[in-house]
Amino acid sequence: ASARSEQNPYLIDDFEGPTALQGWRSYSNPAAPAAGGGLALGPGHRDRGAALTYRLPCEPRTRCGAYAEALWSAPPSLPKRRNPAISLWIRFSPEVDAFLVAKDSSGQTLRFPIPAGSIEHPQAGDWRYVIVPLAAKGASGIKGRLAEIGILVQARIQATVQGTVSFDDVL
Q: For the segment 15-55, what is each residue's pLDDT rounded down to a tens digit?
């Protein structure tokens, strides 16, 4: 017997075709003006994907708050889901921490860490498939409709880091 989902997946973006990157924008921390980032099409897990370039300044013995983020605003027609989750292919450097960020219609913003490696893909920097549940048992899940999602990176080490986080097939 196989488990069957009552919900069909909603394709946020596969970064193919003329509407690739529609609804997406890049953002960096205004409190760290030297931080920078940009969002463009790049190599994906298959064919094209999205590439968020970043430069995250961090001096030794300081609190490093610089981050770069790729944000997608949900259209009003996005259906409300029971037990929502986001799945995607992603790769990033071990020098950064990566998060899936979700903002709901109540204005609440949550950060979900994306591990740098897994049993299936132990090498940091390799493409890997992740599923991030957005509904948690208790009070720490999204409330209402999903309004925005994002991929956020910040320095893991106390040094200036720069590079690219790539992601693809966001459902």
A: 999 999 999 999 887 767 667 779 999 999 989 999 999 99
* Among candidate residues 52, 57, 50, 53, the one with its CA nearest the CA of residue 29: 57
Q: Chain centroid to CA 144: how far?
A: 20
Q: Is 57 exposed, middle or buried (0-12, 13-18, 19+ CB in 10 A)?
A: middle
Overall size of the chain counted in residues:
171
For residue 21, count CB atoms less than 10 angstroms from its CB and return exposed for 0-12, middle for 13-18, buried for 19 or more. middle
- Copy the structure tokens of residue 92: 């990033």
Q: Which DSSP state fits 139?
A: S
- Give SS3 for 96: strand
CB 145 within 8 A of CB 75: no
The pTM of the full predicted model, rounded to 2 decimals, is 0.86
